[in-house]
Amino acid sequence: MPRCALHLFIYLCVVLSILALVQISLFSYGSPDADRYEVHDGEKPNDSVHFELKKHRLPKCLIIGARKGGTRALVDSLALHPMIKAARREVHFFDRNDTFARGIDWYKEQLPLSFAHEVTIEKTPAYFPSLIAPRRVYEMDPKMKILLILREPVVRTISDFTQVYYNRLELDKSLPQFEDVIFQNGTNRLATNYKPLRNSLYVIHLRNWLKYFPLSQIHVVDGDKFAMEPLPELRAIEKFLGLPSQIEAASLVWDPHKGFFCFRRSLGRAVHCLGDSKGRAHRPVSPATREKMRIQLLPYNSKLFELLGRRFRW
């Protein structure tokens, strides 16, 4: 075969191989990896088509807390947005030394596959009260967008205690009485170092985050409003993240038996509700104890409102 004919034959084989690969990629909808690529028009006049693969990326947004403030409902509802990819479990990368020591590459592997234009979100409520998490997050990405959902602090504290109570019950450990742990040694003064209560001293933890991030990068969600009317809060978050408003009201389904909203991706799809541990009855706490807590938490709440430049109905 003449040399020029051989070269032409090789060239045609290469072109046909490329076309075959393109066809396989474009029409393999039924394959498990069919959603792992996108096709884009070229950005320059001489570009025709280029491919982008999904990959594990660092988050652009973190839900840092507050624990028992509605973080699970928040991340599940945000996951309804087609441009948001949310991690399904708490990674605890920034608050634990053992996981942080595994490095950034390990962290990325814990996060969902996404395209560059999508927003990856990770939720770990333990980040908010952590002393070391804000600096670690800042060192990874000083432009990180942060979501913080806050709930009325007395109710949130009781909810936190309730979870601790049931955790101890499952482990067959001694079960504390609320009044015995929430007050200092039989007095009426709050035991502010008791973890479920300390998690409600929002202003203390927020100040630590503001050492590294401006308030413009921290969006505070009203957890009490979100629980009853989630859509306005979700619209504000979409705007904060620079995303189009694409979470639909029909995707938020009120469950009168559970007393909170459940979610579905579209009409006709199954409705997903939070687990049985969400929305369960709190441990009984007397009105007198609640009032003592409310009064002693007022100074913390007032400082928080001043810091945020807004008030909540607490």
Automatic annotation (TrEMBL):
Keywords: Disulfide bond, Glycoprotein, Signal, Transferase. This is Sulfotransferase domain-containing protein. Pfam families: Sulfotransfer_1. The active site is at residue 68. Transmembrane segments: none annotated. One of its GO terms (molecular function) is [heparan sulfate]-glucosamine 3-sulfotransferase activity. 3'-phosphoadenylyl sulfate binds at residues 68-72, 151, 159, 278-282. Residues 59-248 form the Sulfotransferase domain. PANTHER family: GH20068P, HEPARAN SULFATE SULFOTRANSFERASE. SUPFAM superfamilies: P-loop containing nucleoside triphosphate hydrolases (SSF52540). Residues 1-20 form the signal peptide. It comes from the Eukaryota. The lineage of its organism: Eukaryota, Metazoa, Ecdysozoa, Nematoda, Chromadorea.
